[in-house]
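Hello again,

I reread your note about wanting to compare the complex against the isolated chains. To keep things tidy I'm splitting this into two emails, and this first one only covers the full assembly. Below are the input lines as submitted, including protein chains and any nucleic acid or small-molecule components. They are followed by the predicted structure of everything together. The single-chain runs will come separately.
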Amino acid sequence: MVFLLGLYITILTAANLGLMLYIMYERYFAFKKEGRKVAEQIMREHFDNMKFDQQTLLADMRNSVQTVISSTELSGQQTLQSLNDYMIKAHTEHLAKFSEFSSKLYSVLISSGNNFSEQMKQYVTDSNNRIEEWQSSYISVMKNEIDSLIGNEKQKLIEFTEQEKKRITSYIKEMAVKDTSIIVEEVLSNGISVKDQEKLAQQAVEKFFNEL
Amino acid sequence: MKELLQELVPYLKTKDAMSYFVNRIDTAILELSSSDVTHLDNYFTLKEMGTLTKYIISFDDLKKLREELMQIPVITIKIAFRPSAYFESMLTDSILRAVKEFCVVQIVFDHHLLGGAVVDFKGRYRDYSVSGAINEWRRRKI
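Full-complex prediction:
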């Protein structure tokens, strides 16, 4: 009788434990799935913003390049030099803006009180270095290509400019999506511990009552 | 009635507890359907009865209590994680200490916030979440 009772209790405990583990397992995957949706949503929003920003920048570039090319006061060599200077300036500004996005996003998250890993800090540094490297190599390639166009017609210059615009837009788009995705994934996966979450929530409530 | 509320509200700290209490008043009003309040112990716990019997002497008092409870403001705190019972209770207590008036707390989970909290109380809405900070920065800079 005692043996049967013992067996019954053991089976009941094992069943309860199994059920508990199953529920935890289910919840964990539901959270991961929801987290991915958030990452995708933020990425999409960021992508749309970048796209809009690039369209404005490219429209501005196109107008300025056309103005330089159609200027009757400039000779062929001067036209190329002006175009080169303008494109370098525009691309440098745009890339600097993107680099600023990565570092600002990082600083916003840090100032919110998150305890980020060394890996995250390393990522931001690598990302900025990568942008700088690409920027200097791009400028050197562009200089050579533009120099080879000396003596050609204006139409060829316009075509070259358009082609470069497409190339850089596509590259920056790809880079923006990739970098934002990594940052958001980092936040969602291991960026904020439960302890930090509690601290952040408490700080927010205190701030609310201080501002009342 | 003010004395009754002063005794009851610290006991009914959360919106859920308040709703449950009001539901029991509604049931009592519906089922008793008379001016007799001697059978309230069928609807409330011994602890609650200890407070209620001191102030509720008529059916109208019960209805008035319900009206007063329904007017108590709710402070909603939206957070990015599922809190432990200990943290929830600690946060609720700290809020009630800070408010200095009758109110009940509602804590809501929303993973979209990523971190921090969104607080809503008597028409004052403040977003102190991480996602709010990112969106605000993005709106200004990009």
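For quick reference: Chain A has five helices and no strands.

B.
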